[in-house]
Write a structure and sequence with these properties.
By secondary structure, this protein is α+β, with helices and mostly antiparallel strands. The protein has helices at residues 42-56, 72-76, 101-115, 119-131, 150-161, 168-174, 251-272; strands at residues 15-20, 26-30, 36-39, 146-148, 184-186, 190-192, 202-203, 221-225, 229-234, 239-245. Strand 9 and strand 10 (239-245) form a beta hairpin.
Length: 279
């Protein structure tokens, strides 16, 4: 619990957090049962449902979706050329990493057309219900409309560590850099060259500064949300963490989040006798 106690010092009205390690041991603290707005943490949740749809044959990663030669894969990886918000393409597909809410809206439409269900309904049926996630929804937008709780997202983290809804090979592909070497802006942290991303998951790589910790391995994947939320899995350390708050991302989180991540990893690595993955 020591690492999670850090959230008590955060300048936020309410916060909840939790972590899980390779053995399945998990801890939670704070307002872990409360429902928080997720903002962009909605994206990896929706993306995971899209991966379920791919395995079911409802969608194909390389089918056309979005502008020009863009595909489902491009949209998941922010490589479609669509702008951050509404509008036509501002680049050719696969040439820039443009973090795009618009791309996820297009992807939500593609899933709805292919499945006959709204994106929210599909996430509920394909992901939330099988995992027992009772407080999770993506709301009106698969890009930023979601709500969830730490308790629910701990179930999702366990799934990401040991996939049951998709094949482990699909998860491995989704958390491998898609379209390597693309440069782009990481919101809040400026331009990154490169700016690695998987299929719905940001990949840490060697980005600095970054919202995760110095102890997080380059293979760490996850996401953060403007509503003051973060989630990650470190496949090297074989642990994962989530924190939800009700204070928007800003200077406080840029300072607090890396220390939170490092405290969790320090506890897990010491207890497990593992080396520091960053050394």
């Amino acid at each position: 619990m020591a690492a999670l106690e850090i959230i008590q010092s955060w300048p936020v009205p309410h916060a909840g957090a939790g972590w899980i390690d390779r053995s399945g041991h998990r801890e939670v603290a704070g307002s872990h049962a409360a429902t928080f707005p997720l903002a962009s943490l909605t994206k990896p949740i929706f993306a995971y449902a899209v991966l379920v749809a791919v395995e079911e044959g409802t969608l194909r990663l390389d089918q056309s979706a979005g502008p020009g030669r863009s595909t489902v894969r491009h949209l998941l990886a922010h490589a479609s050329g669509l702008p951050p918000e509404v509008g036509g393409p501002i680049a050719e597909a696969e040439t820039r990493r443009i973090y795009s809410n618009a791309g996820y809206e297009v992807l939500g439409q593609a899933l709805a057309e292919a499945s006959g269900m709204s994106a929210a309904e599909y996430v509920r049926a394909a992901l939330a219900e099988p995992l027992g996630m009772t407080t999770t929804t993506i709301g009106a937008s698969p890009a930023h409309g979601g709500t969830s709780s730490v308790d629910d997202l701990m179930l999702l983290l366990a799934e990401w560590l040991e996939p049951t809804l998709i094949h482990p090979a699909t998860m491995a592909a989704a958390t491998t850099i898609a379209f390597p070497n693309l440069a782009g802006v990481l919101p809040g942290y400026g331009r990154k060259v490169p700016n690695p991303w998987g299929l719905g998951f940001e990949i840490r790589g060697e980005k600095s500064p970054h919202w995760s910790g110095e102890l997080n391995s380059p293979e760490t994947f996850g996401h953060f949300g403007r509503s003051g939320t973060l989630i990650w899995v470190d496949p090297v350390a074989r642990c994962a963490a989530v924190a939800l708050t009700d204070k928007d991302f800003g200077p406080w989180s840029m300072h607090a989040w890396p220390a939170f991540c490092d405290a969790i990893l320090a506890d897990v690595l010491v207890n497990d006798g593992q080396p520091n993955p960053r050394r």
